[in-house]
Design a protein that fits this description.
Elements lengths: L2 E3 L6 E3 L26 E3 L2 H11 L4 H5 L2 E3 L7
Antiparallel strand pairs: 1-2, 3-4
């Protein structure tokens, strides 16, 4: 665990915290992966979702409701 400075108030905060405990500033704009806890996630584009439905039909339903993909573990959520 490392400490980072809150960009809003300058308070030292854990790098795993979602918000600053002093001022409430959201430190991570993207959610953490529920499987591995990483913030290294990318949004799944709507174009990618449509392409999956066209190519794989009902078998890609999970991808349609998923909004992010973790770059570390590959989990879609």
């Amino acid at each position: 665990m490392a400490l980072i400075k809150c960009p809003e108030c300058g308070n030292e905060v854990s790098d795993t915290a979602q918000s600053c405990p002093k001022c409430g500033y959201a430190l991570h704009k993207t959610p953490a992966c529920p499987k591995c806890g990483s913030y290294n996630v990318q949004p799944i584009s709507n174009a990618s979702k449509v392409a999956g439905v066209v190519a794989f039909g009902i078998f890609s339903a999970h991808n349609v409701v998923s909004h992010y993909k973790c770059k570390d573990c590959g989990h879609k959520f």
